[in-house]
Amino acid sequence: MAKKTRWAVIGAGIIGAAVAREILSRHEFADVTLFEKEDRPAAHQAGHNSGVVHAGLYYEPGSLKATLCRRGVSLLTDFAAEQEVAFDECGKVVVATDDVEVERLRAIHDRALANGVPDIALLDRDGLRGIEPNAEGVAALHSPHTAIIDYPGLTDALVADFRAHGGRVRFSTPVKNIDRRGGPTRDTAIVRTPVDAQEFDHVIVCAGLQADRLAARSGESRTPTVVPFFGQYFILDEGYSDAVNGLIYPVPDPKYPFLGVHVTRRIDGGLMIGPNAFLSFSREGYRGLGLSIPDSLAVAADPGFWRFAAANMATAARELPGVLSIERFVAEAARYVPSLAAADGHRATRGIRAQAMNRDGTLVDDFVIDRAGATLFVRNSPSPAATSALAIAEHLVGIIDGR
Ligand SMILES: Cc1cc2nc3c(=O)[nH]c(=O)nc-3n(C[C@H](O)[C@H](O)[C@H](O)COP(=O)(O)OP(=O)(O)OC[C@H]3O[C@@H](n4cnc5c(N)ncnc54)[C@H](O)[C@@H]3O)c2cc1C
């Protein structure tokens, strides 16, 4: 009988769950263990995001983000339909409010065409009103196939499918580190937890906000470091739930990898605005100030962060007072949906983005994957990595399989 190949996947976020499932779907003789430090899947980024299935408008053509997003959309859509995960192709407009933004919008349109995003169209003011009667702008880009989805539900379905095919999940099991083992014919790796140590032929680390720490504890480079950026959301009062038909986004500021405060329909029917992007005092603190001393000290000790801060401090100081204020969010959204100007609502959860930063303080744009012996480390997987998760899984397992 063929010897089983032993695989470990670290992290049951959406990427780890997709990777674990992908291994079993490709390898009949694989013995796969998924390690997760929390007691459930999707406890961090996968369960605290905008819930948008991006179509691939913004990304540098040829980048991993661009190619894996497009492939990810079709894999995700099929899997969601098969598993009956809530999904709604509600469409999206990106709205330009002045001439500078119109120029940027044209550049996004060019990228979207280069990335093969289907059925996109540039609209004038009247065209925009035809799609979103309450939106106001001088031009817009319409992406009719951008969608919303229940990402926690999808992650649960990936884990359930993995288990149904013989996969093993170890919740509440934080991986301390991974040791490289050089063998005469091939490398292996030892995964250490507080209770045991196990040898594997292949390990794939999808640790999101903890990616740099787990890599450093495993003897790999600490850089790129993870700098956490929180994004607060507000849910508007029910009377506003039908103010928009789909998703309405501003034109993003090209200086930052974040898309700006957008108006998002939620898969449960509510209307949400957010997320902003501000440096987080902790990697996993979702309430109050969410202050974590070790996380804050780690950011302060990162020389790259001070270079980033020097370039961005003035903007940060300007933004700080409104960071958790619904008035600020509503005013931002009312720039392109004026009927929201008087809206009220309540603060919803926040999400914390794992944004990788280089030593020189620049933010890493594309997905980053490093190989060290028998282990692959996902070092940067920001948005649109939820959309792209099933394609990232194909890509990672393909690297190990030599494809
Ligand atoms: C505010 C916000 C909005 C976003 N909006 C969108 C969107 O609309 N569309 C989109 O496509 N993307 C969006 N994203 C990005 C998307 O959510 C992430 O790219 C995606 O969730 C990354 O998945 P992941 O599996 O790498 O990370 P995570 O979902 O964070 O999962 C990592 C997992 O690893 C576990 N882990 C960490 N360390 C260890 C350890 N030592 N041992 C065991 N387990 C460990 C963690 O507990 C966690 O469960 C958004 C992100 C945020 C924060």
Classify the secondary structure makeup into a structural class.
alpha+beta
The tally of beta strands, per DSSP, is 21
Q: What fraction strand?
A: 25-35%
**Chemical compounds bound to the protein:** flavin-adenine dinucleotide
Helix content: 25-40%
How many domains make up the 3D coordinates?
2
Describe this protein with a few key phrases.
403 residues; alpha+beta; FAD/NAD(P)-binding domain; 6-stranded mixed sheet; 5-stranded antiparallel sheet; 10 helices; 32% helix; 26% strand; globular; binds flavin-adenine dinucleotide
Plain-language structure description:
With 403 residues, this protein is α+β, with helices and mostly antiparallel strands. The chain folds into two domains: 206 residues, FAD/NAD(P)-binding domain (3-Layer(bba) Sandwich); 109 residues, no CATH class. Helices cover 32% and strands 26% of the residues. The protein has ten helices and 21 strands. The strands form five sheets. It has a six-stranded mixed sheet, sandwiched between helices. Strands 14, 16, 17, 18 and 19 form a five-stranded antiparallel sheet that branches. Helix 1 packs parallel to helix 5 and helix 2 packs across helix 10. The protein is globular and about 70 Å long. The mean pLDDT is 92.
Give the SSE layout.
Elements lengths: L4 E6 L3 H13 L3 E6 L16 E2 L10 H20 L3 E2 L3 E5 L2 H16 L6 E4 H7 L7 E5 L3 E3 L1 H14 L3 E3 L6 E5 L6 E5 L4 E4 L1 E4 L5 H7 L7 E12 L10 E4 L11 E4 L5 E4 L3 E2 L13 H8 L2 H17 L6 H9 L10 E13 L10 E5 L2 E6 L4 H17 L2
Parallel strand pairs: 1-2, 1-13, 2-9, 5-15, 13-21
Antiparallel strand pairs: 3-8, 4-8, 5-7, 6-7, 10-11, 11-12, 14-17, 14-18, 14-19, 16-17, 20-21
Helix pairs in contact: 1-5, 1-10, 2-10
